[in-house]
């Protein structure tokens, strides 16, 4: 790890510079937050688990032609990544109604959407990461029309792969959050992480039991217990699915 001071510390990761200005080191933390960091805690081993899951999924996506910031993983909780400037957008893809979609629309939890829904949120903790219309997004100059169109296309492609991949893990992909960044060549790369922190994942074997099926951060949000076990289980199934390929 570089002796330099950290570049950035978020809720889930610390980003350090390296000797190469084009490469950063992301260190995944065990800290857990929910409700815009109003609820805080720690999930033992979460950093290493999320880093491992993200590393595997980034490699799977790269193999399918989707460019990511992933380079390699020098330690269980560390990821070397291409240096990118993150766009201040959280891109949420939904397959099944849950969370804020239910709260804001009245749709029943578990309603299967006729087609995937891609939503953009302003990545700003002080404002509570509000949902954006496309017009507001462009008004605020958070991304260009071309970037938004490309992100939407990529998000749907990633969704198709992840849905199929998690299906092989006997997991239903309910929804998930993505972030994108621009590298030094102004190329758009998938960044951040894909893990039980950023996805809603339901265990198919648990059927419709609203508590038992949860294999993601909702276990922490909703005080369901067994958070570490759920995260470990996702990692176990992901590794098994990758081995089979």
UniProtKB/TrEMBL annotation:
Cross-referenced Pfam families: SAICAR_synt
EC annotation from Swiss-Prot or TrEMBL: 6.3.2.6
Extent of the signal sequence: none
Gene Ontology process terms (BP): 'de novo' IMP biosynthetic process; cobalamin biosynthetic process
Top-rank taxon, per record: Bacteria
Keywords, comma-separated and alphabetical: ATP-binding, Ligase, Nucleotide-binding, Purine biosynthesis
EC class name: ligase
Record has Nucleotide-binding as a keyword: yes
Domain (SAICAR synthetase/ADE2 N-terminal): residue spans on this chain: 6-237
InterPro entries (UniProt xref): SAICAR_synt/ADE2_N, SAICAR_synt_PurC, SAICAR_synth, SAICAR_synthetase, SAICAR_synthetase_CS
Entry keyword ATP-binding: yes
Pathway of action: Purine metabolism; IMP biosynthesis via de novo pathway; 5-amino-1-(5-phospho-D-ribosyl)imidazole-4-carboxamide from 5-amino-1-(5-phospho-D-ribosyl)imidazole-4-carboxylate: step 1/2
Record GO terms (molecular function): ATP binding; phosphoribosylaminoimidazolesuccinocarboxamide synthase activity
Family per similarity comment: Belongs to the SAICAR synthetase family.
Protein name: Phosphoribosylaminoimidazole-succinocarboxamide synthase
Species in which this protein is naturally found: Chlorogloeopsis fritschii PCC 6912
């Amino acid at each position: 790890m570089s002796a330099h001071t950290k570049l950035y510390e978020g809720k889930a990761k610390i980003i350090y510079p390296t000797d190469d200005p084009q490469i950063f080191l992301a260190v995944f933390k065990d800290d857990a937050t929910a409700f815009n960091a109003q609820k805080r805690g720690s999930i033992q081993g979460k950093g290493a688990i999320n880093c491992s899951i993200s590393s595997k999924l980034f490699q799977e996506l790269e193999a399918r032609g989707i460019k990511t910031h992933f380079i390699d993983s020098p330690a269980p909780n560390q990821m070397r990544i291409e240096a990118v400037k993150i766009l201040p957008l959280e891109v949420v893809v939904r397959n099944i109604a849950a969370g804020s979609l239910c709260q804001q629309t009245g749709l029943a939890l578990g309603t299967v959407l006729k087609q995937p829904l891609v939503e953009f949120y302003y990545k700003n903790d002080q404002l509570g990461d509000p949902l954006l219309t496309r017009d507001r997004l462009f008004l605020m100059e958070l991304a260009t029309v071309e970037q938004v169109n490309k992100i939407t296309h990529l998000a749907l492609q990633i969704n198709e792969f992840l849905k199929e991949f998690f299906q092989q893990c006997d997991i239903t992909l309910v929804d998930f959050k993505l972030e994108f960044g621009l590298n030094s060549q102004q190329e758009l790369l998938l960044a951040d992480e894909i893990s039980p922190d950023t996805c809603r994942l339901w265990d198919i074997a648990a059927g419709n039991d609203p508590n038992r099926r949860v294999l993601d951060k909702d276990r922490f949000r909703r005080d369901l217990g067994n958070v570490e076990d759920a995260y470990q289980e996702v990692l176990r199934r992901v590794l098994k699915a990758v081995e089979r390929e």
